[in-house]
Every structure is written in C-alpha cells, then in structure tokens.
Amino acid sequence: GQQLNQSPQSMFIQEGEDVSMNCTSSSIFNTWLWYKQEPGEGPVLLIALYKAGELTSNGRLTAQFGITRKDSFLNISASIPSDVGIYFCAGQNTGTASKLTFGTGTRLQVTL
Amino acid sequence: ETGVTQTPRHLVMGMTNKKSLKCEQHLGHNAMYWYKQSAKKPLELMFVYNFKEQTENNSVPSRFSPECPNSSHLFLHLHTLQPEDSALYLCASSPAVNSNQPQHFGDGTRLSIL
After folding, report:
1. CA of B62 vs chain A CAs: smallest distance (Å)
2. Span A66-87, average pLDDT
3. Least CB-packed of A2, B73, B81, B89 within 10 Å?
4. A37 CB-near residues (< 8 Å, 6+ apart)
5. Are B53 and B66 in contact (CB under 8 A)?
6. Smallest Cα–Cα separation from A4: which of A95, A89, A74, A94?
7. What does the DSSP assignment read for A26-81?
8. b (16+ CB within 10 A) / e for B59-84
C-alpha cells in the first residue's frame, strides 16, 4: 500500500538542541497530522494541518504543511528529556478519512 | 488522554485460545478503527466502523473478527491466531469517517501468541 517516507529514522540529540524531521509522499494529501508515541502508549495527536503552506505551533513544536501538499515538516525547539519517543506523520484526504496513511516514524532520543 | 480506553493492556495466549480485545471511547465519536502495529512497520489499518456499520475490512484474516455493538464500543475477537499476529493492537476513533478530523488512539493491547 501507499507509504510515507519519514526521515530521519532516528535521532540522538542533546538536551536543549532543536530537532527537525520531515515526511514526504508521492501523492498529495489535504490533511497532515503529526503524532507522538511513547513506550507502552498509543499515538497522541500533536498537530493537525489543513491547508497547504500552513504553519502551526503547539508549544515548542511547529509543523508545516508543504506547498506541494506532498510533504510536511515538524520542528521541536529546545528539546527536553520528555520529548523522547517516536514521531509519526500521517496523511489524510477528506472523503477517505479512514485512509490514514502513516509514516515509518522518527525515533528521538534526548541525552542530558 | 483517556478518551479511548483499551482492555486488556497486555494479553498472552496460545494459538488455540479464544480471547477478545475491548475498546471504549468517551469522545462522542461515530467512527472507530482497529490498527495493528508491528515492530519496524507503519501502522496497518484493519477495520473501520462508521455508526456501528463496518465500512472497511483491509483484507484481514478471518481469525480476527470485529464487533461494534454501538458507536462507543468496539471489540476484536481472536481465534486460532498465529505467532506472526503478535503485535500492538490499537483502537482509534474520530467524529465520522468522511471528515478531516483527526483520529484519537487508545494505548493499545500488547498481544503475544505462544
């Protein structure tokens, strides 16, 4: 089935550093979502993007909906230990909302 | 976030056992979903229910049998599973299937098949 390419696959950073990750697709989406999953838990919605070019923030997190509608970016500023987890992007199109296509995830480790 | 609750959190069963996974959502949503999450693979959609009616079966083997008695509850009945069925099973809900509102996930049931 369709798959989103998410990069990097994993990141090891120091506390206080900024983080950038991205997600690309061969087809367009009209909604992009970013989720975070911590060990032993389900994915938790971080940010939802509904318009091409949209830039949305949630605390230290900022995500952008790419102009081409085929990509999205997530930035985390001034990382802290509780940012550890796996970050998933997901694309969705209205009318086929059940067809959430997920990325392969970016595993983030934060060292003190 | 406890809007979507899944039980049990962990389940170990033999290949000949019959067990059920339960999902309950308190968000007033009308669509519910089952996903399978295996190591190093993207989440795989299994089933979709909209207003209690199944709208999607993503070629899931018949040893997995879903049930949705109402918009708030979703079950996954398991029978004669295989070792490769060991995975995290996630339930999600959303306001409706044909909307762009995000899905909200439960914490999953970690299933191990002996």
Report:
1. 20
2. 96
3. A2
4. A43, A44, A85, A86, A87, A88, A105
5. no
6. A89
7. SS--SEEEEEEE-TTS--EEEEEE-STT-EEEETTEEEEE-TTSSEEEEEE-S--G
8. ebeeebebebeebbebbbebeebeee
- Report residue B100's pLDDT band, with 50, 70 and 90 as the boundaries: confident
By C-alpha distance, the chain B residue nearest A42 is: B107
Q: Which of B45, B90, B96 sits opposite A42 (nearest CB)?
A: B90
Contact yes or no for B93/B27 (Cβ under 8 A): yes
- Does residue B8 have a cis peptide bond before it, meaning omega lies within 30 degrees of 0? yes
Q: Do B99 and A94 touch (CB under 8 A)?
A: yes
Structure confidence by residue, pLDDT tens digits, A22-44: 999 998 999 999 999 998 899 99
For B83, list phi and psi in degrees, rounded to 5. -55, -35
